[in-house]
Amino acid sequence: MKMLATDLPGIVMFIFQPAEEGPPPGEEGGAELMLKEGIFSELNPSAIFGLHSDSGTTVGRIGYSVGAALAAADRFEISIIGSQTHGAAPKMGVDPIVMASQAVLALQTIHSRNIDPLKPSVITVGMIHGGERSNIIPERITMEGTVRTYDAEVRDAIERRMDEVLRGITAAGGGTYEFNYNRGVPATLNDPQLTRLMIPTLESVLGATNVAEVPPLMVSEDFSYYALEVPGFFFFLGVLKEGTESGPIHSPTMRADDLAVAVGMRTMSNLVVDFMKLQAGVK
To answer: Yes or no: is domain 72-183 CATH 2.40.50.320?
Structure first.
């Protein structure tokens, strides 16, 4: 059945958003800025839908999560400060490399010893910089990394415990530290009622065997800002060509089949139309 735009029992808003992967350093952007500039001020939607490609799922299949779907993503910067000296005379200085090494290992105990094991979290140190020569103990080591969580209390606890761990290690080692914890996008939470309401549509478009509930992921997505304002449903579109292999998303070996575009369009358009019909009581 063909449906004209004038036949739709509602209004559809398309959001064309820049900087989904984050704005340049020091600038604003993405969904947070769209909301700040009033994207929902004139038309406040009853629901919002989004999708993301999934390079590990074949074309024609959909994955979704009820509730938590993607994690909050925070970024931290740490400086471990000691006192420079010759590598042959460590007692004459304070070694920040030793303290930084202890810190990297100790940070990993936060999840295993301070957080409810049934509440997922990840602390990753992704960068360590410091030192100038092999025979010199430097004054400073810098580290940067990311924290991923779903639960607001876990997020708060990790930030607090990271500071406590760094304070204890540097105090014991005779050094000092600087710690900056920058909160990024919140967790993407699919509205449970909306999600369950739309599962029949997914199954009618693709077949029940091609629609599956999947575990939450620790990657993040700034669709989460919209889903904090209105009920949201974010799902994963299979883009892997049958019989082929692909690397993960954001990798140079990712390969996506163009046939997935039509599947995504068909799925999304049916979700929108069916939702509006349900809202309007149209059969």
So the answer is: no
Q: What is the pTM of this model?
A: 0.88
Residue 96, C-beta contacts closer than 8 angstroms, at least 6 positions apart: 80, 81, 82, 130, 137, 138, 139, 140, 141, 175
E strand segments, the chain: 48-58, 62-64, 67-70, 72-81, 85-86, 121-130, 136-137, 140-149, 176-183, 188-190, 211-213, 232-240
Q: Which among 132, 128, 124 is positioned nearest to 141, based on CA atoms? A: 128
Cα 110 to Cα 248: distance, rounded to the nearest angstrom: 28
Quote the radius of gyration of the chain (alpha carbons, Å): 24
Q: Kindly give the confidence (pLDDT) of every residue in the chain, 283 residues in length, as a single tens digit, with 9 standing for 90 and above.
A: 444 556 788 999 999 998 888 787 778 899 999 999 999 998 999 999 999 999 999 999 999 999 999 999 999 999 999 999 999 999 999 999 999 999 999 999 999 999 999 999 999 999 999 999 999 999 999 999 999 999 999 999 999 999 999 999 999 999 999 999 999 999 999 999 999 999 999 999 999 999 999 999 999 999 999 999 999 999 999 999 999 999 988 899 999 999 999 999 999 999 999 999 999 887 6
Strand-pairing partners, residue 144, are: 77, 127
Which pairing describes strands 121-130 and 140-149: parallel, antiparallel, or unpaired? antiparallel
- Structure token digits, residue 266: 């068909």
The CATH code for residues 5-12+47-71+187-280 is: 3.40.630.10
